[in-house]
Design brief:
Layout lengths: L2 H29 L4 E7 L4 E10 L2 E10 L6 E3 L3 E4 L3 E9 L1
Antiparallel strand pairs: 1-2, 1-6, 2-3, 3-4, 3-5
Length: 97
């Protein structure tokens, strides 16, 4: 085995290990708050309090949702709610679902 072949092999192994680590990290991060109660603070100043049941493409899927608008009473929302991720300012994990 030549020196350049050994360096190339080691480089490829390190790149594959790094890519696998990144995928595992991303999958873990995406599942971090699943089935937990969250408060999705939206960019318009309102918020959605509910249980995060899934992340689908560009959306968060919440159930048992209460809409919170500044200056108004909390409003329960029926069914599941899709929240566009681009409208979410930040997400707070509140506790178990």
């Amino acid at each position: 085995m030549t020196w350049s072949l050994a360096v190339n092999l080691i480089t490829n192994v390190l790149l594959l290990a790094g890519a696998a680590g990144w995928v595992i990290y991303q999958v873990r991060a995406d599942r971090l708050a699943i089935n937990r109660r969250v408060l999705a603070n939206l960019i318009d100043g309102s918020a959605m309090d509910g249980v995060l049941i899934a992340r689908r493409r560009g959306y968060l899927v919440l159930k048992s949702v209460t809409r919170l608008d500044p200056g108004s009473e909390p409003t329960p929302v029926d069914g599941e709610v899709l929240v566009d991720k681009d409208r979410v300012d930040f997400l707070q994990v509140l506790g178990p679902g």
